[in-house]
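Weekly puzzle thread! Below is a chain. First person to post its structure in C-alpha cell form gets bragging rights.
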Amino acid sequence: MKPAVPITVPIALLQMMFVVVGVLMTRFTLSASGHPAENVAWNPVSVFIRNHGYLLLLLPLTWSITALWMERETLPWPRALTIVSGVAPLTLLGFLFWHGAASPSTGKRFITTSS
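Winning reply:
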C-alpha cells in the first residue's frame, strides 16, 4: 500500500532549498571577495554558480517527476530507493556549493602593466 503523502515532495523541497541557499551563499562569498575584480583568477565553479545557478533548479524538478513516475502502482519501486535517489543529489549539491563558496578564487593575482 502506498503512503498518503509521498516522500518525494519533502525531498524535492529540500533539494530546492539547497540550490537557493547554495547559490546565495556562493554569490555572497564572491561579492565579499571583490568579484568582479579583473586581476584575480576566479574559481570557474563559483562563477558558473553565480551566473547560472538557477539552472540547478532543474535537478529537483526532473528528480521529482522521475521519482513520482517510478512510484506508480504498476512499478515495483521501493520507497527506500526513492529516498536514496533523492539524498544522493543533495550530497552532490552540497559538495558543489561548498567548493564554490569555500574557494571563490584560485588565489592567483595577475599583474597588470600599463602601456
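Puzzle host: Confirmed. Bonus trivia for everyone else. The two ends are 75 Å apart (CA to CA).
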